[in-house]
Every structure is written in structure tokens, then in C-alpha cells.
Amino acid sequence: MARQKLKELEINRDWCKGCGICVKFCPKQVLELDNKEKATVVRPEDCIVCKLCELRCPDLAITVLTTQEDDNGKND
Amino acid sequence: MAVQDYLRQRFFPHMWCPGCGHGTVLNSLLRAVEELGLDKNNIVMTSGIGCSARISGYVDFHSLHTLHGRALAFATGVKMSKPELTLLVPMGDGDALAIGGNHFIHAARRNIDITAIVMNNRIYGMTGGQFSPLSGCGIKATTAPYTTIDNNFDVVELATAAGATFVARTTTYHAKEATSLLKKAILHKGFSVVEILSQCPTHFGRKNKEGDAAQMMENYKNITAPVGSKALEENPALWGRGIFVERERPEYCTEYGKIVELAMKGAAK
To answer: Does the keyword Mitochondrion belong to this entry (chain A) (predicted)?
Structure first.
């Protein structure tokens, strides 16, 4: 079974207003607000690619890019 | 196509406050349009006045930013002249049911093929936090410092009674559900109403001590329950979520087309 794996979590810092919705609802605490009050990725390795941050972001500033991973842990 | 391709990116970042639910509604709506694979050139979005109405400026569809409460009236005009287009009409709670209340019920009565989205934040945000007909009793607003005494409309019941053939409700917390309901509403032939509870942390949240945007969203999880669930049956204080009405009735533009055909036959005699 191919599994979705995080390739990159893109955050558009020009659009982010730092409301903290993504930080609060991330089930794995992948995101945090930095000292400029912008969302930033601190634990990308924990991301389970649920994309809840991307779906709920009111500023449309988050894009979750994924890759497929096969059974042997190799990336497509 | 990515969701961002449906935006007029030159106007971003948008003017809504940090944490405003209207951005999430825009997000869910664009995903619905993307998943349906609709062509930008076949979509028309009309909107009235208010924070919510600014949405039509951000989408890369044909758009009309019209008079307060009259978005549905303009949409009716567009739809009748070009029935092949998809009409999306996002409105705020006041825009839809106070200023545009009459247009709302009559569009529902006609069953014209338009998708009306009520972005319900229960307050007039743009003008400084006055209470709206959807605020309900016991709410603090700038025009009700000692709480409101007005009962609120129930959008779902009102739309159902007025004759809408697709009626649904969801919240900004339930973003996936919002996208799936919007998809169904757009595909539905007839007048569809989707009420989306949307947080206003700046006015409603601050006045009513509901916390920040994320806390207000979390609250939506607690005060709603899916239609037909046991939780909703046991606790009538909860708001129902999901599809309330899905029925078939003759659509207005189709019927109008038939009348035009009939009249042309009469003229040929």
C-alpha cells in the first residue's frame, strides 16, 4: 500500500496573519508561531499529512505537498 | 489546478481580520469548485455588502459586488439571461436575512438554480459589531450592551419553509464537511442554501468572551451535532449539522424556457 508522506509544508509568510488556528488544531503539534507571529514548521517529521491546517487556514497561506511512499519506505 | 489558481492573488493578503471564519469559507468553497472541476469562466459570484461580501473580489470568477442584500436579485438576473452559468452567492447573516430577507425567501420560493451561502457570524462585523437577526437572545453587541432580547431566525427552517430544495448547515471547524456540502449544493438543480457558522473573533468573540478564533471554532464542535445523531435527539439545544432538505421541484429557468417556447409557438401562428 502506498502511503502519503510529507514532502514540504509551504507557508506563505506574506499571507499568514498568525491567527494560530493551524497551531491549535494540528494533531501532532507540527506548527508553532514564531517571534514574528507567523506560523512556522518546527516538527515536520511528525506530520501525518492530515492537511487540516491547509483546509482550515483562513488566509489560504498553507500548502501541504506530499509524496507517495511504498512498502519499503522508498519514495516515488 | 491548485486552490490558489482560483484566487486573484494580487489582492492578497485579504482584508479579513486574523482568524476570521470567512477565509475558511472561501478556502472550503474553492476546494469544492476545484474538486468539481468547474471552469472559472462558467462561474459567476455575486455578493452584497459587508465583510462577507468582499469574497467576490478575491475569486477569479466573473463577479458582481452589488447592493446591500441584493446579491440574490442580481444573481437571479444573471441566471435568467444565461442559465448555463453556475451562480454562487455568498452572503453574510445580515446581508442575507435582514437587508436581503425578502430577496432570500423569494429566491427560495421560485426555486431558481442558485447556490446561496450564508456565512453566519451572528454580527455586523464591518460596521462595528451591531447585533443581527441571527444573533439570538442574550448576546452582547455594540447596540446591545445589556444583551439582546431579539429572537433569531433559524436559517434552515426559514429556507425550508420558503421552498428551498437543498438546505444544509455546517461550520468552519468542519471544513471537509463544508466542502462536501458545497459540492452537493452546487450540483443540486434548484435553490440551495448552505449556512456556514463562521467566527468573528474581533466583534462577536470579544464582546461575548468566546476567546480567540481557534477557541470559537472548537466551540462549534461542542454546540453542533450531525443530523439524525443521538446527541442531537437527546439535546435539542445543539445545532444540527448536515443536509436537512434535498428534494426535487421544477426549476425556475427551465420552466421559464418552456414558457418562452410556448409564447414563440403562439407568435408563429
So the answer is: no
Give A55's contacts in chain B (Cβ within 8 Å): 27-28, 31, 175-176, 179
Q: How many CB atoms are located within 10 Å of the residue B40 CB?
A: 13
Q: Do B217 and A20 lie within an 8 Å CB cutoff?
A: no
Residue B256 neighbours by CB under 8 Å, 6+ apart: B80
Query: Is 3.40.50.970 the CATH number for A3-67?
Result: no
Q: Residue A61, SS3?
A: coil
Residues of A in contact with B8 (CB under 8 A): none
Asked if B178 and B25 count as a contact pair (C-beta separation under 8 A), the reply is: yes
Model's pTM, two decimal places? Answer: 0.94
Q: Which CATH architecture has domain B3-268?
A: 3-Layer(aba) Sandwich (3.40)
Q: Rounded to whole angstroms, what are the CA distances from A56 to A46, B22, B91?
A: 19, 11, 20
For A11-53, what is each residue's pLDDT tens digit? 999 999 999 999 999 999 999 999 999 999 999 999 999 999 9
In Å, how far is A26's CA from the nearest CA of chain B?
A: 11
Q: Is the ipTM of this complex over 0.95?
A: no
- Domain ranges in chain A are 3-67
